[in-house]
Every structure is written in C-alpha cells, then in structure tokens.
Amino acid sequence: MSRTLSRRDILRAAAAATAAGTLGACSKNDDGADPNGVVTLDLWHGQVDRGKAAIDALISAFNQSHPNIKVVGGGGGVTADSMLQKVTAGLAAGSYPDIAYIFGSDLASLTKSPKVADLTGQLKIDDYWPAAKDAVSVKGKVRAAPALLDSLCVVYNKKLFAAAGVPVPKAGWTWDEFVSTAKQLTNPAKGVFGTGWPGVGDEDTVWRIWPMIWDLGGDVVSGDGKKVGFDSVGAQALGTLDRLRTDKSLYVDPKPGSEQLYQVFLGGRMGMVATGPWQLPELKDNGLEYGVVPLPSYSGKPVTISGPDTWTVFDNGKAKVKAAAEFVTWLADPAQDIQWDIKGGSLPITKATAELPQWKQHSAATNGLDVFVTALDTAKVRPTISTYPQISQHMGEAIASVLLGKQSPADALKQAVDKCNQVLAVPS
Questions:
Q1: pLDDT at 76
Q2: Nearby residues of 205 by Cβ (< 8 Å), 6 or more positions away
Q3: Which residues 6+ apart lie within 8 Å of 353 measured at CB?
Q4: NCBIfam families attached here (predicted)?
Q5: Do 263 and 316 have their domain in common?
Q6: In the Cβ-directed half-sphere of 340, how many Cα atoms lie within 13 Å?
Q7: Cβ-based neighbours of 169, under 8 Å, separated by 6 or more
Q8: Which of 122, 221, 299, 334 makes the best surface tag, with the fewest CB within 10 Å?
Q9: Rounded to an integer, what distance in angstroms lies between the CA atom of residue 173 and that of residue 305?
Q10: 10-residue block means of pLDDT along the chain (428 residues)?
C-alpha cells in the first residue's frame, strides 16, 4: 500500500533540501537584477510529494513565460513547522529568501520585521475569497499573498454510523447533537471512539475551538484589541469538550500534528472528525466510505474557520519585490490556481477559479469537496495580530487541561483569560 498523505505531509518542507545556492544569492543590498536584466527569486516553498510536483511544474511554466524572472524553488532545508524560525534567523543574519511559505497564524508576528514587503496595491486582493483576503491583511495593509486555502468541516464514517444504527448528520445540526451522536457511536469493546481532538495544546488544538467561540457571539480579541473576546462564552465551548471527555467518546491525540488522530479515523475506529479538504485524498486512497457535513453550531447559523497559509515576500531590493509580486499574482490567476488546487490540495483562492469547468469536474469527482467550498461563505480567520501566537499558547493550555480532565472548563478559561489579557495589555 502506498503511503497516504496528511495535511502535514502536503505542507511539510522537504527536509532533504539544502539552502546551498539560495542563501548566497540573498542580500539586503542587492537590487536583484543581473547585468542581463534577469531577476532571480529564491522561493522556500517546502512542499513534498504532490505539493512539490505541483509547485515545481508551476515554477517551470512561469520561468518559461517570464524570461526576465527566474524563480528557484526548494531552499530553506526545514519543515514547514520550522519555517518561521528559519526565516527569523535569516532575517537576523541578513540572509533570507525572496518568498517563503509562511503559516497564516505566523504572518502578523513576522511583519514586525521591516524586511517583510508591503504588497499593498501590488496584488489583485479583491479577487481573493474573503477569508484569504483577511488572512493576508495586517493593520489594513497587504503583507502577503494567499498560498493555500482551506475550511473546517466534519467528516464521518458511514459504516460506523450504520453499524451503530445512528442517523448520519445533516447541515444545521447542533453541538448537543454532535455530543449525543459521538456517545452513541462510541464502542469501548471494539475500540471505537465517537470523535477526536488534538490534545497537546498547539495551534492544531486551538484553531478548532474558534468557530465555537464565534458562533456563541465571542471573538479571539475584543473590538479595541485590549482584551480577549471569549471570556463570557469560552466556558460553554470548553464545556462541550468536557462533556465529550466525560462520556468517554473523545479520542485525545497525545502527539503533535494530529497524525495519530487521523490514523485512528482512517483505521475505522472513529466515527467523526473535524478536518479539512487535505484529508479527502487519504480517505479516497484508503477506500473509506465517508460523508462530509458542515460544523455543528449553537446558534443554528453556519460558521467555520479557514486557516490560509501565505506566500510572504521579503525585501531584497525593489526589483526583487516587484518580480515576487508578479510571481505570486500569477500563481493566484485561475489558470494557475486551478493546477495548484487540484494537484497541491488547496481550495480555490478565488471564486473565479471555483467557477472553472476543471474545478467543477474535480469537485464532482471528489466526495464532499463541495461542502468545504460552500463553507468558505461563512468562514472566518484568526486575527492577524502579532500577539496571536501567545494567545494561542494560553488557550491551548486551557483546552488541553480540560481534555485531560486536569481542570474544569471555568477554571481553565479563567486562567487563559488572565494570561491573555496580560499579553494584550502590553502595547505591541
């Protein structure tokens, strides 16, 4: 059996790639063009397998059609999880790429560096899906281009539902119904869990709770940005997780990356899991009979989260910034976007791409993909503020403590709110 791919695989940087030949070409004093007028761009894309094949093909096509720009991909030599640290170290040393694949949740903190280019007015930002547009905007300025777009929905195992005699979920269901369904699906004798949740307290643990917070009328931070926006509703969201834990219907993944959680689901021992479109190729490869449904809600109104990742451009001279903006704009054009979406595992960056016959054909052939695209209409993104990583850390600690039964939802929330408010009280 061939190895299946998780989102982590798709986004993981090629660890075997080296920085040789890339770092030396980057200089903060280099305007970018050689004597022949050709601008060389170093791109740390960090893709492997399907993603690498897709971006390499696009780079080749771009280089052929743009003789005055040469994009060189593959530098960095780190995993995507470590790209922020790698780039930060490069910025400190004065040697950094022209473009790097940066997680959306890291963008705002990275823009503290003056070497992150301001792309305002250089990109066709109004063409992007609203979630993608919001994810690359920091303090009203465009600080990156969207690289990957996703949304969070619930994927369920049809066979386990049938075996338990439980009706499959439908759009418009509630979190109470989710909890009840998970309990009915759980079968300790067969090692079957109703659902699962990452339990290490990292961003994968945290981003799944924000749709619950938004649905309850809360937010990550308040409108003025001086305090958290989940202090009055967070206990209810954490309480839902605590109910799943108390019912023993929740598999808590003890390792980073959620790979173990997804393996339990792929192995037919989990009824439902909140995940994104990156999981669908794996499900298909494993022959799992599955369905996809929007996230449940408290209010009855659909809401989800999108976690766009970005192509962040760095200032290595005006010529390079201009060329980099041209490259990432070209990538988002429907003719190229469709190739990346189908081969690399992204949802369409623009609605124009979603209207292409190629995408409609791909969507029709991929069970449940249309549910993820439709969810983009109600998708929100995490705030693009430099303090978000610290807020995530404290919220992650609270979620993990509830999942492991170490604290009550109320106590865990209070601790997280106090710590996060201290972070927000310090001017950024």
A1: 72
A2: 197, 198, 199, 396, 399, 400
A3: 334, 337, 338, 341, 359
A4: TAT_signal_seq (TIGR01409)
A5: no
A6: 28
A7: 154, 156, 177, 178, 181, 272, 291, 293, 296
A8: 299
A9: 17
A10: 37 32 38 82 84 90 97 78 85 94 93 96 93 95 96 98 97 98 97 97 96 98 96 98 98 89 96 94 91 97 95 96 97 95 90 95 95 96 95 98 98 98 90
- Which residues have C-beta within 8 Å of that of residue 386, sequence separation ≥ 6? 108, 109, 111, 112, 428
Range of the domain at 288: 153-305+387-424
- Contact (Cβ atoms closer than 8 angstroms) between residue 98 and residue 314: yes
Amino acid at 359: W
Taking a C-beta distance cutoff of 8 angstroms, is the pair 129, 350 a contact?
yes
Query: For 349-361, what is each residue's pLDDT tens digit?
Result: 999 999 999 999 9
Same structural domain, 256 and 395:
yes
Task: Provide the mean pLDDT of the chain.
Answer: 90
Regarding whether 393 and 258 lie in a shared domain, the answer is yes
pLDDT confidence of residue 52: 81
356 and 241 part of one domain: no
CA 251/CA 199 separation, integer angstroms: 9
**Helices 175-185 and 234-246: crossing angle, nearest 10°?**
10
In tens, the pLDDT along 161-201 reads 999 999 999 999 999 999 999 999 999 999 999 999 999 99
- Residue showing tokens 């890291």: 106
Quote the CA–CA distance of 411 and 366 in Å, as a whole number.
Answer: 43
The reply to whether 67 and 114 lie within a common domain is: yes
Helix (H, G, I), strand (E, B) or coil at 88: helix
Domain count, the chain: 2
Of the candidates 137, 139, 107, the one whose C-alpha atom is nearest the C-alpha of residue 123 is: 137
Please check whether residue 197 is in contact with residue 209, taking contact to mean a CB–CB distance below 8 angstroms.
no
How far apart (Å, rounded) are the C-alpha atoms in residues 268 and 222?
Answer: 41
